[in-house]
Amino acid sequence: MTTQEAVNKIDSEADKLGEQGQIIAQYIIDNFLSDEQSAELVENKTLEECIKELKNKAQRQAKNGVAMIKDDTVYAWVREFYGFAEKAKSEKVIDLFDFI
User: Fold this and answer.
1) What is the pTM of this model?
2) Mean pLDDT of 35-48
3) Which residues does residue 63 pair with via DSSP β-bridges, in sequence order?
């Protein structure tokens, strides 16, 4: 599957799932669909399955029917579901004036 095909697949799935699906789809597209290897990871999984898995995980953490899950945790669950490697985050912004 090409990167563009993966983006199209995720986009079309998100259109059917409302705001939740669109937010997760945008996260996937912006952060992971930049190469063929990552694109292959979305080929056999659906965004709907991903959201069901997220809901199941949240329900397991709920107390008295309420769960408050941090965004970072939800995005980690998305990465886990699809098998994406976590992108390295830059610890410090490099200012070019430091080198002058």
Assistant:
1) 0.80
2) 92
3) 66
Characterise 90 by phi-psi region: left (phi > 0), alpha (psi -120 to 50), beta (else). beta
Tokens of 9: 């697949």
pLDDT of residue 35: 86
Residue-by-residue DSSP string for 20-87? HHHHHHHHHHHHTTTSHHHHHHTTT--HHHHHHHHHHHHHHH-BTTB----HHHHHHHHHHHHTPPPP
- Give residue 86's pLDDT: 73
Lookup result for tokens 């990871």: 41
The token pair at 94 is 């490099």
pLDDT of 92 strictly over 50: no
Q: Is 85 left (phi over 0), alpha (psi -120 to 50) or beta?
A: beta
